[in-house]
Amino acid sequence: MGMISFASFLLAVVSTGSASREVSENVDLVELNHFHDCLGRHVYDQVIFYEWAPDTAKYHVRAWCLIEERDIASRRPMKRYSDDLYEVQWQDRDQNLIRIITSTHYRESWTQVDPERANKRVLDERLRTVLIRRSVTKQEKVVASDEANDTEDQSDISEIAASPRPAEPIVLR
Question: N or C end of the chain: which has fewer CB within 10 A?
């Protein structure tokens, strides 16, 4: 391997390291929703990010993400008493960055109708204002793909595939 290609490889590896960047943004409302089935059994928890639409005088979903049981603290809204904002923070593995979403408004709900899915009837998902996405270089994609192939654990994959889960979020993971 030549010196230039080796240096490029090292630069790509360093740039794809975990938590390499932070992205902060504000939304108008953060909701922690506990979804239950028709028999009242808990199915899943999710965090939904909204923006206020003055023309319709309603909140519209921008994005949402599931809270997985193994992520006890991650993605759960927490109040920052220093500035009275509610904050949701997690490592977005798809975008290779730390997301910090803040809002002045927060609500927690227990429902048998998924608020995010219901909101799709008001505003089509393709028309949503999405969260900030960073562009990923070709080098980062190649290195990330190689790392995933090298460290893939088959037991984790079979465990995930066997567990019943609702549809995965499109924007966040």
Answer: N
In this predicted model, what pLDDT tens digit does every residue of 75-115 receive, in sequence order?
A: 889 999 999 999 999 888 888 888 999 999 999 999 999 99
Q: At what angle do helices 3-15 and 138-151 cross, to 10 degrees?
A: 70
